[in-house]
Write a structure and sequence with these properties.
207 residues, 5 strands, single chain, alpha/beta, globular, 13% strand
Length: 207
């Protein structure tokens, strides 16, 4: 799987995730696109960035939905939210209330993901939200990007190992590829000098 083979919306997700990694935030991003694949809105995780008034709530999916200009794009029920990682409780609620009815997700998250809660709420279930999972190669790549972030910034060794074990439950291939790339000192240079496409293709070569 090469970066150039991805649809533009998935390319943009990994570009945004790499920006977040370079800023020290979590490698999680989301975009909203129409049926023709045109990107209408985007968001990335910014929880470690000081330019956000309350960074704890600066999650990718919530940001993408908040940034959708419904005066220009007034049919959110027809658009698709593409997410690198399964949305959390806050982001799941935001997509329900934001009239998003189609969601495509790369990696499952049994720890923080909340899409299963839709079925527990009559209100949410009646919205008819369709969820498509892309948890094979895209899921592995998502967890690889997240692993890189933790290897670069997480100084709590116990917490880091628990997180990598969680990432590995569904996507061990991605975690192992990131560990290999890290052991090869690939990230010893300035992060912003490396493109998301390069990171993606280097990881893919190790799958």
């Amino acid at each position: 799987m090469n970066y150039s083979d991805l649809p533009k919306h998935w390319q943009r997700i990994f570009e945004l995730e790499w920006i977040s990694v370079c800023e020290g935030s979590k490698a999680i991003a989301a975009v909203i696109a129409d049926n023709a694949g045109n990107i209408l809105s985007e968001g990335r995780n910014q929880i470690s960035e000081c330019n956000v008034p309350n960074p704890a709530t600066a999650h990718a999916e919530a940001e993408a939905i908040r940034n959708l200009d419904v005066s220009r794009f007034p049919y959110p029920k027809t658009y698709t939210l593409y997410a690198g990682l399964e949305p959390c409780i806050m982001c799941m609620g935001t997509l329900v209330m934001g009239h998003i009815r189609n969601v495509e997700i790369a990696a499952r998250d049994d720890f923080g993901g909340a899409m299963k809660l839709i079925e527990l709420s009559d209100f949410a279930r009646n919205k008819g939200i369709k969820v498509t999972w892309r948890e094979d190669e895209l899921g592995d790549m998502q967890r690889a990007f997240q692993t890189i972030r933790e290897l670069l910034y997480n100084t709590d060794e116990g917490k880091k190992q628990r997180m990598l074990a969680d990432f590995s439950f569904y996507n061990k291939l991605g975690v192992d590829a990131a560990l290999q790339l890290f052991d090869e000192n690939f990230f010893s240079r300035t992060l912003t000098d490396i493109s998301a496409e390069t990171v993606f293709n280097e990881l893919s070569a190790r799958f």
